[in-house]
Design goal:
heterodimer; A: alpha/beta; Rossmann fold; 6-stranded mixed sheet; B: 15 helices; globular
Chain lengths: ~250, ~350
C-alpha cells in the first residue's frame, strides 16, 4: 500500500504548547480515490490538513507525495507539486471578482505573475478557461461579482473552482459542504463526483451521507490518532466508531 | 439554499460593486481621459500658480507617496521606515552629483538604484513580519540608517549636511526653480506611470491577492514572501527617485531626509490622499506640501500639529481619504443611476 500511495504520512505529529493535536498519524491515500477524514470536533482533522499542505510544520513525522519527501516544504511549494486545498472557513480575495479569482489561480503555475512591467490585460488569456470552470461550479452568471458580495454557498463553489483551476493531482477539501443547504450539498456532491476522475480527493467532512456517497476509504480520527480506517460500510458499523463519533453525531442531530 | 436571497437571479440583478483595486480603471473611458488631461494641465501649470520651489517639492513627494501606497494600499504592508530609501537616495544622488559631476538625471538614477539595493536586505528581513511588526522592523532599520549617516561625517558632513549639490545638465542653466520644475516633470511622470503599470500588471493583481488573503495566495502556489520583497524593492526605487530629485531640487541634503518624521509624513500624505488609490498620494502630496509651505510662510511654528490634526480627522471621518471618498461617491451615484 505505502509504495503506491500518492500521499502518505508516517508518524505525523504536531504539538501546540503541550497539546498534541495530531499524534503519530499514519495515512496512505491511494491514487484516484476519495479518502474521507472524519472524527469529532478537536480530533485533529484540520491540523492534519494544514500539515499535509505545508501550512504547519510537523513536530515529528514524515510526509510523502508520490514517493517524494515533502516534509517541511512551504505551502506554495506543496501547491506547485500538485496539491490544491480549500479552507474550512471560506478563504477568498474579497475585493476581486469571481473570474479574477480563477484567473489568478490559472496564472499561478506560469511566470506571468512576476511581469510587473506588462499589462494585466495579458491575463485575458485565461478568461475562457476561467469561464468554463465558473460554469462548472454554477457561477457562470456571477463572473463579475466581487467575492464579498456572493452568498455563502456561492463562495464555497468559488473555492472549489479555484482549487480546480490548479488542475491538482491531489485535491484536499476541508468540509466542502459545511453550512450549506440541502440543494447546495447535492450540487457539491455531484460536482466532486464529476471532478474526481483522474484525481485523488482527500476531504474532511462531517456530513456522513456525503461521506457515504463519495468516499472509497474513510479514516476516523479521535484525539489526534487514527481510530479506524477502511471502506465506508465497514467503518460505519464499527463499534468503536459508533461510540466515538457516529453515536455522538446522531445524538446531536 | 440557506435563504431566498441566495438565488443567482437576485444576485446578478444587484449591480456589482467594482473592486477597490481598480477605482479609476473601472470608471468609464471618458472619465479616465478627462482626469488624465486635467492632471496634465495642472502639472504643466503648477509652477505658474505656486512658488516653483514648492511645485518641485510636490513632484518629489508625489513619487514618495506613490511608493508608500504601492506597499500600503496594494500589498498590505505599512512601511514606517521609507525615509531610509528617500534619504539614502538623496545622499547618494548628492554625492554623485558633487563628486562625479554627472548630469542630474544620472545622479538621481544612481541614488534610486542605491535605495533599491538597500531595500533588498531590509525588505528580506521585514517581509517575514506583518502588520505592526512589519512597521516596527522598517522603522528600526530606518533609524539605523539615520544613525549611520549621522556618525559617518566624512561622507555625509553630519549635521552640516551636503552643501552645493549641482543641477548639472549638459551645461543648461537650471538654477531657476521654474525651469528645473519642467526639467524633472518628465522623470516624475515616468515614475508615476511605472507605479501605475506595476499596479495594473499581472504582478499587481497577485499583490492585491496577497494583500487580501496571503494564506490563499500561498495555497495557489504564489511565493508570498518573494512577491512582497519584489514590491518592497520596486517601492524603494520609486521612493529613491523622489528623494534624489529632492536633493537636487534643494541643492542641499540634510539629515532630515532620513528622520523618522519623514517616514511618518509619507504615510500621512497617503492616508490623506486615499490608501490604495495611487493618484490619491499625488493629491495628498500636493495638499500637504502646499499647506506646510503656507504655514511656515505665515510664521506658524507647530506645523506638525496641523498636519497631525488633519491626519486624525481623516482617519476618523474620511477613512478612504480624499481621492477614495470622491471615487466612492462617484461610484455610488453611477450605481444609483443604473438602477
Amino acid at each position: 500500500m505505502a509504495g503506491q500511495a500518492i500521499l502518505s504520512a508516517r508518524g505525523l505529529t504536531r504539538d501546540f504548547r503541550g497539546f498534541r493535536a495530531v499524534d503519530g498519524v499514519d495515512l496512505d491515500v491511494a491514487p484516484e480515490t476519495v479518502h474521507a477524514l472524519v472524527g469529532p470536533n478537536g480530533a485533529g482533522k484540520t491540523t492534519l490538513f494544514n500539515l499535509l499542505t505545508g501550512f504547519l510544520p510537523p513536530s515529528a513525522g514524515r510526509i510523502e507525495l508520490a514517493g517524494r519527501d515533502v516534509t517541511g516544504l512551504p505551502p506554495e511549494r506543496v501547491a506547485r507539486l500538485g496539491v490544491a486545498r480549500s479552507f474550512q472557513i471560506t478563504s477568498l480575495f474579497p475585493q476581486l471578482g469571481a473570474r479574477e479569482h480563477v484567473e489568478l489561480a490559472l496564472q499561478a503555475p506560469s511566470g506571468l505573475g512576476w511581469r510587473f512591467w506588462r499589462s494585466a490585460k495579458l491575463m485575458r488569456r485565461y478568461r475562457d478557461r476561467a469561464d468554463e470552470l465558473l460554469a462548472m461550479v454554477g457561477l457562470a452568471e456571477l463572473a463579475e461579482a466581487p467575492a464579498e458580495a456572493l452568498a455563502y454557498g456561492r463562495k464555497r463553489a468559488l473555492e472549489l473552482a479555484i482549487a480546480l483551476a490548479l488542475d491538482p493531482k491531489v485535491l484536499l477539501l476541508d468540509e466542502p459542504t459545511a453550512g450549506m443547504g440541502l440543494e447546495d450539498v447535492d450540487r457539491t456532491v455531484d460536482l466532486i463526483a464529476r471532478v474526481r476522475a483522474g484525481r485523488t480527493v482527500v476531504m474532511v467532512e462531517h456530513n456522513m451521507s456525503v461521506v457515504g456517497r463519495l468516499a472509497d476509504t474513510v479514516t476516523v480520527l479521535q484525539a489526534g490518532k487514527v481510530l479506524v480506517e477502511g471502506p465506508y460500510e465497514q467503518v460505519r458499523t464499527d463499534e468503536r466508531v459508533i461510540t466515538a463519533y457516529l453515536g455522538a453525531a446522531d445524538a446531536a442531530h | 439554499m440557506t435563504s431566498a436571497v441566495d438565488t443567482p437571479a437576485e444576485e446578478s440583478a444587484r449591480p456589482a460593486p467594482p473592486s477597490g483595486l481598480l477605482t479609476v480603471a473601472r470608471a468609464p473611458g471618458w472619465v479616465r481621459y478627462a482626469l488624465l488631461a486635467a492632471g496634465l494641465v495642472v502639472a504643466l501649470w503648477l509652477p505658474n500658480g505656486l512658488y516653483p520651489a514648492v511645485a518641485v517639492d510636490i513632484l518629489c513627494w508625489a513619487l514618495f507617496a506613490v511608493s508608500v501606497d504601492l506597499l500600503l494600499g496594494f500589498t498590505g504592508l505599512m512601511s514606517f521606515g521609507h525615509a531610509a530609501f528617500w534619504g539614502t537616495s538623496a545622499y547618494v544622488t548628492g554625492l554623485v552629483a558633487i563628486h562625479a559631476g554627472l548630469p542630474f538625471p544620472a545622479a538621481v538614477l544612481a541614488g534610486a538604484l542605491a535605495a533599491a539595493l538597500l531595500a533588498l536586505p531590509i525588505g528580506y528581513l521585514a517581509v517575514k513580519r506583518t502588520g505592526i511588526y512589519f512597521a516596527m522592523v522598517t522603522l528600526a532599520f530606518a533609524q539605523m540608517v539615520y544613525y549611520v549617516a549621522n556618525e559617518w561625517r566624512s561622507v555625509t558632513q553630519g549635521e552640516n549636511g551636503l552643501q552645493g549639490v549641482p543641477r548639472e545638465f549638459f551645461g543648461t542653466d537650471l538654477s531657476d526653480d521654474y525651469y528645473f520644475y519642467y526639467a524633472i516633470l518628465p522623470i516624475v511622470v515616468l515614475g508615476l506611470l511605472a507605479a501605475w503599470r506595476i499596479v495594473h500588471s499581472p504582478f499587481g493583481r497577485v499583490l492585491v491577492g496577497i494583500r487580501d488573503n496571503p494564506a490563499r495566495a500561498r495555497a495557489l502556489g504564489y511565493p508570498v514572501h518573494r512577491y512582497k520583497l519584489t514590491a518592497f524593492v520596486l517601492s524603494g526605487f520609486l521612493a529613491g527617485l523622489g528623494g534624489g530629485l529632492f536633493a537636487v531640487g534643494h541643492r542641499f541634503v540634510s539629515l532630515d531626509v532620513l528622520h523618522w518624521t519623514t517616514s511618518g509624513k509619507a504615510v500621512i500624505v497617503v492616508v490623506l490622499g486615499g490608501i490604495g488609490t495611487l493618484w490619491g498620494g499625488v493629491l495628498g502630496a500636493a495638499l500637504v506640501v502646499r499647506l506646510e509651505d503656507w504655514l511656515s510662510f505665515s510664521g506658524f511654528e507647530a506645523i506638525g500639529l496641523v498636519t497631525g490634526g488633519i491626519f486624525v480627522l481623516v482617519v476618523l471621518l474620511f477613512r478612504r481619504g480624499i481621492w477614495g471618498t470622491v471615487a466612492h461617491l462617484a461610484r455610488r451615484r453611477a450605481a444609483a443611476r443604473r438602477r
